[in-house]
Amino acid sequence: MLSARRPHLAFTIIASLLVALGLSLAPAPAHAVTAADCVAGEYFDGAACVDAPAGSFTAVNGATSATLCVAGLYQDETGQTSCKSAPAGSYVDQAGATSATLCAAGSYQGSSGSTSCTPTVAGYFAAEGATATTACAVGTYQPNPAQGSCISAPAGQFVASTGSTTVSSCAAGTFQANAGQSSCTPAPAGSIVASTGAAAATLCAAGSYQPEAGKTTCLTAPAGRYAAEGASAATVCAAGTYQPDAGKGSCIQAPAGSFVAATGSIASTLCTVGTYQPSAGQASCIDAPAGSFVAKTGSLSVSQCKAGTYQNAKGASTCLNAGAGYFVAKAGATARVACATAVGTTATSCPVAAEPGVASDDVQDIEPAPVTTPDMQQAEATPADPLQCLPGTWSETGLSTAPGGCVEAEPGYAVVAAGATNQTECAPGTFTQQAGASSCRPAPVGTFVPSAGSSKAYVCDEALGLGATTCPGYVSPAIITVWVISGVLVLGGAGAGFWLYRRSIAPGPIRGPEKQIP
To answer: Distances from the Cα of 255 to the Cαs of 251, 259, 421, in angstroms?
Structure first.
């Protein structure tokens, strides 16, 4: 280091340069360099004054050696008169240091000039170069000392306070789905947590429920009620359904032929006699309509009253006989008809005798009375759908819901069974006089019906037995028509032949073959 206060040194240097260049100055007396010439920050090495190296210092003038920085201090420059203190968060653990060392993660130092760092205790952490220790936040913990970070509480566990050294498991009835949390969540209504340390709640299974939060078990749905998966309450079975057992996830529909009128029922009830139910899951039964009956409990359909019987009230379990002096011609009747000549108590017709002196081609009106029915006994008839057209009527679909509804069979036709989609023509020997017949009636004794689809019976004294189709001496209109046509053809042919004959013998020129005129 050069200084204005040391001219002798400058002179010495200049003189040396001149000698090297082969030059010389005028002789002068020599200038000796000593330790006394060295200032603070330098020391005399025996030949000259030199700077104190990094990691050392000289505090006074005339030093003959540099002094090393002690532990806790350092010096990163040369020619210095003092050392620097290690700042907070760092340390110097040996003499002659040229730099300070940061405290490692997991340790800290709050003071300057320190020779070491302090390790953190459990529940705390410190990053590299920390000047203080930091408590673990809620949701984290640290069971070990000298750590640079804290550990997040895993799912199913929690840490409620700062500076914790341990983690806690969620209690039964609670859960925690996320890591690093300070508390657990109660299981919602409709779910449970049966064990500790759970990361999720479990839905109550079908047939069980839980109305409260934070529970460990589900409740069983009682009979008459049900619970779907995850239910918070047991639901009463609706009308038309029932449930006889506890712990079920659904209710049972009342079978066809039965009903359930009240909610929360544990059993279904069979339809009583006089009522029926064709569908499942119903809250009531249907009364048998007038003209029909239901004789058994638990029925799915009604039975029509057969011809000779009737029923004028709904909800009946039997039909009423026509009674003496009355008749009922069709099945499904709702009333009886007075007839003085009716025979027995279940008459199906009212006989009318042919009047004397009536010609065989005259028509005798006779009251209709079906003689062919599905069942001639007072036993239960074939069950019928309430929407089906009754015997004696029909529609395109066989149901009353068809466009135009059910149509009565025309005179000369009959509809025997319910639900028919067409009417049937009465065969020869049988007839119907009125619309809506459920069967064709055979021609009474002394009458006959020669063709199908007839609405009339013809008087014939010689006709024997029921259902006669012809009468001696009777010629059908069809045969008469054939005869007339044949006669016309025969007579026409004979006339034409006679005319040709007469023409051929008549006088006059006879036409020959035509000739071509040139």
So the answer is: 12, 7, 30
337-338/326-327 β-pairing? antiparallel
CB contact at 8 A, 316 and 331: no
Supply 419's token pair: 């639900």
In 3-state terms, what secondary structure has residue 343? coil
**Would you say 174 and 146 are in contact if contact means Cβ atoms under 8 Å apart?**
no
Residues 6+ apart with CB under 8 A from 31: 8, 11, 12
CA angle, residues 299, 305, 310, in degrees to nearest 5: 130
pLDDT tens sequence across 266-284: 999 999 999 999 999 999 9
CA dist 292 and 141 (Å) reads 85
Collapsing DSSP to helix, strand or coil, 72 comes out as coil
Separation between Cα atoms, residue 217 and residue 24, nearest integer Å: 113
> For the chain, what is the radius of gyration of the CA atoms?
64
CA angle 311, 317, 321 (to 5 degrees): 40
For residue 388, give the DSSP letter.
B
Q: And the tokens for 352?
A: 């009318």
3-state secondary structure of 479: helix
Q: What pLDDT digit, counting tens, does each position of 81-128 carry?
A: 999 999 999 999 999 999 999 999 999 999 999 999 999 999 999 999
Cα–Cα distance for residue pair 438/425, rounded to 1 Å: 12
Task: Please state, in angstroms and rounded to a whole number, the distance separating the CA atoms of residues 269 and 474.
Answer: 65
C-alpha neighbours within 13 Å on the C-beta side of residue 37? 21
Strand pairing report for 241-242 and 168-169: unpaired
Closest to 196 in 3D by CA, of 212, 184, 204: 184
Tell me how far apart the alpha carbons of residues 492 and 473 are, in angstroms, rounded to a whole number: 28
β-partners of residue 209 are: 219, 231
* Closest C-alpha among 460, 458, 487, 457 to residue 473: 460
Task: Name 447's bridge partners.
Answer: 459
Which helix (H) or strand (E) segment holds residue 252: the answer is: strand 252-253
Element (H, E) at 326: strand 326-327
pTM above 0.90, yes or no: no
Average pLDDT for the chain? 84
